[in-house]
Amino acid sequence: MAINKREILFGLLEGTPAPYVPAAFFLHFPPEFREGRAAVEKHLEFFRYTGMDFVKIQYEKPFPPRPEIQKPADWAKMPHYDREFFEGQLQVVEGLVKAAKQEAVVVVTLYSPYMCAGHSTTDALLTTHLNQDPDSVRRGMEIITESMLVFVRECIRLGVDGFYHSTQGGEAGRFADGQIFEQYIKPFDLILMEEARQHCAFNILHVCDYLRDYDDFAPFLDYPGHVVNCPLHLGERTISPAEAAQMFKRPYMGGMERKGILATGTPDEVRQAAAETLHAAPESFVLAADCTVPAETSWNNLKAAIDTAHTFRR
Fold first, then answer.
1. Cα–Cα distance, 246 to 1 (Å, whole number)
2. What are residue 286's DSSP bridge partners?
């Protein structure tokens, strides 16, 4: 009997026993596969070759650099981007919803307003400005959030099942004053996530450690999201997938390091590492990496991990 991947993912949220452990991994495709039909076809090729359990649409439209933003007051100059700015990305969303939604859950990567602000300048400059004069930076964050709401609402209109919301800003050592995150970063995350929560049935909270590590996930524990994907390193200690699931009070997705065996090992080594992860995983679990894997990662390695999850028995 054919496996219904949509039923498996939604059953995960309801605690329904599944015939196998779902799994998914993501990477960025080369530039020629980031817009239009070419992007749709490449996403489908990757989804079907690896056997992963949902379609995750990569976001490939970062905000362009704004050289006019040099001091905190300059954030008021941040432009608003309308639907036309996102058109190429939305064509990919529309194509993949039409092509794949009947067989699998379709989620779209969504960068947080804080991350988009960093793309508009640099991570270092944004951090400096928030430390110097966060009230001035707030206006830029408001404009960015308004722009991203255009994208979110269009994706919802096109029929996506949810979003993979990637957020940063609460990493260790970024801000001496924790209130900067609470007052000037988190509220804008929550505006987008609340829009997704109201309209979508499968949202993933991704706490991203691409730039820095975390000492504490407490600032993110009340974020919405049906599933959480976060690193398992907290300061000098490592937590288990079961601890992460208990901490966030929702199913955990992850367990494998994006730059570890997945990227550097052989398929046999990947199978062994995946099996070890699965033996220690909680009941409600999606095998995945802690973030997007390097673009050059072998698809055969990712398929090996996914096949291991699909044939795993406790």
1. 34
2. 253
Strands 233-234 and 237-238: antiparallel
SS3 call for 163:
strand
Instruction: Check residue 210 and give its pLDDT.
Output: 84
Other beta carbons less than 10 A from residue 297's beta carbon: 18
CB-count exposure of residue 245 (10 Å: 0-12, 13-18, 19+) = buried
Distances (CA, A) of 217 to 169, 177, 209, 220, 228: 11, 16, 11, 6, 11
The predicted structure's pLDDT at residue 270? 98
What distance in Å separates the CA atoms of residue 150 and residue 181, rounded to the nearest whole number?
24
| Domain that residue 95 falls in | 5-311
Reported as type and span, the H/E element at residue 226 is none
Indicate which CATH number applies to the domain containing 156.
3.20.20.210
Residue-wise pLDDT tens digits, 242-252: 999 999 999 99
With beta carbons less than 8 A apart as the criterion, state whether 224 and 194 touch: yes
d(CA 240, CA 246): 10
CA angle 65, 66, 70 (to 5 degrees): 125
Assign 284 to helix, strand or coil: coil
pLDDT in tens, 48-107: 999 999 999 999 999 999 999 999 999 999 999 999 999 999 999 999 999 999 999 999
| Domain count across the chain | 1
**How much is the mean pLDDT over the chain?**
96
Tell me the pLDDT band of 262, cut-offs 50, 70 and 90: very high
Q: Which residues pair with 23 in a beta bridge?
A: 287
Per the listing, tokens 């949220």 go with: 13
pLDDT for 212: 87
Question: How far, in Å, are 133, 233, 266 from residue 305 at the CA level?
Answer: 46, 21, 11
> What confidence score (pLDDT) does residue 1 get?
46
What's the CA gap between 8 and 119, in Å, rounded?
Answer: 36
**Cα–Cα distance for residue pair 27/34, rounded to 1 Å:** 12
